[in-house]
Amino acid sequence: MGKLVVLTLLGAVLALIGERLVAFRQRTNASRAVEPVDLPNCHLIEGLENGSEDIDILPNGLAFISSGLKYPGMPNFAPDEPGQIFLMDLNEQNPRVQALNISDGFDKASFNPHGISTFIDKDHTVYLYVVNHPHMKSTVEKFKFEEQQRSLVHLKTIKHELLTSVNDIVVLGPEQFYATRDHYFTNFFLVLLEMIMDLRWTDVLFYSPREVKVVAKGFSSANGITVSLDKKYIYVADVLAQNVHVLNKHRNWDLTQVKVIQLGTLVDNLTVDPDTGDILAGCHPNAMKLLIYNSEDPPGSEVLRIQDVLSEKPKISTTYANNGSVLQGSSVASVYHGKLLIGTVFHKALYCLF
Ligand SMILES: *[C@@H]1O[C@H](CO)[C@@H](O)[C@H](O)[C@H]1NC(C)=O
Ligand SMILES: *[C@@H]1O[C@H](CO)[C@@H](O)[C@H](O)[C@H]1NC(C)=O
Ligand SMILES: *[C@@H]1O[C@H](CO)[C@@H](O)[C@H](O)[C@H]1NC(C)=O
Ligand SMILES: *[C@@H]1O[C@H](CO)[C@@H](O)[C@H](O)[C@H]1NC(C)=O
Ligand SMILES: *[C@@H]1O[C@H](CO)[C@@H](O)[C@H](O)[C@H]1NC(C)=O
């Protein structure tokens, strides 16, 4: 090929990417201003300063919090130390965070926790499943929680050729879980291209020791996943499409779509209010500020509540919103009887009474 042809082709490709990038920025409303919504009784949680990726609260009020994620393309200000899982007892008057001890025999140095999910077995044993990215790969780690010792005993590492780019999991049996994959590609540049071109090649997997299968697909970037109180529906956040998918769970673990709830903001992690069944969504109101970090003009935070999820018209309200002056890059919000915890990708965490 002549040089001119190559240059023309290159120009066309760049123009296409440029056009898609503009469309991407518009789609994500990348520089949206945040109207503040304050809660009266909030304070920042001491000891959580550099991210608190995911939060899962047990029925007895013990909250597990995973430390901030180190992920290509995401800012991170934490010292270069291995990831941790923190515990917070929400029954206490002034709950404090405590890092859980992890048993020996597990490679703690490469621990890089992402989504977490708890499962309580019939014998009341509490298991904590953690999406891990050691050396930027994806595994799911199964731990047993020892409440007295405040420690996690590592039981096994789950790997599978389909378990790539795992973001979040929801565990529904001793060895059964759904997992979201946030990218199709694993190469950083192909991932960027995938996002910009909006390929919608990401999916939800079902995992069990006997069977691993794709159960839902077509997401721009499947992110947070959780289950309804009655365990009949699965909720999946599509962060780039800015919506929440409500899926029907079948006996063979297949999922079929019931509805999609548009939120108009980048939805990260989902939790369910144990008292009402409402969905709480940790959202990113201005995504570009999150990716291209500027401390003078930081990313904001937004927590939405979705009531009457299955009705004709679910009600969406803003529980908390801040322009980044208090809290930056909220990724998850979790409630426990009048108490609210808001976690972030790489910033602080907020504890509120409401
Ligand atoms: C972007 O967000 C602003 C609110 O700050 C809203 O008024 C506007 O409609 C949004 N634009 C799009 C394309 O969603
Ligand atoms: C957060 O990161 C900063 C800068 O690396 C460090 O000084 C600080 O100790 C960290 N805080 C916690 C609670 O890890
Ligand atoms: C955690 O483990 C360390 C060393 O293994 C031990 O010194 C410490 O007491 C343990 N902490 C708790 C809370 O059990
Ligand atoms: C929680 O938020 C992080 C931060 O962006 C996101 O990458 C991750 O997918 C979410 N994890 C869970 C458990 O949903
Ligand atoms: C954010 O809001 C606070 C007060 O709510 C205000 O003082 C500050 O200037 C705002 N910051 C930006 C970057 O808009």
TrEMBL record:
The record's annotation in SUPFAM superfamilies points to: Calcium-dependent phosphotriesterase
Active-site residues are 114
List UniProt keywords, sorted A-Z.
Calcium, Disulfide bond, Glycoprotein, Hydrolase, Metal-binding, Signal
Record PTM text? Glycosylated.
Residues at which Ca(2+) 1 binds: 53, 116, 167-168, 223, 268-269
For activity, the cofactor(s) needed are: Ca(2+)
Q: Name one GO cellular component term.
A: extracellular space
Reactions this protein catalyses: a phenyl acetate + H2O = a phenol + acetate + H(+); an N-acyl-L-homoserine lactone + H2O = an N-acyl-L-homoserine + H(+)
Glycosylated residues are 269, 323
Would you identify the family this protein belongs to, as annotated? Answer: Belongs to the paraoxonase family.
UniProt name for this protein: Paraoxonase
Name of the gene this protein is made from = PON3
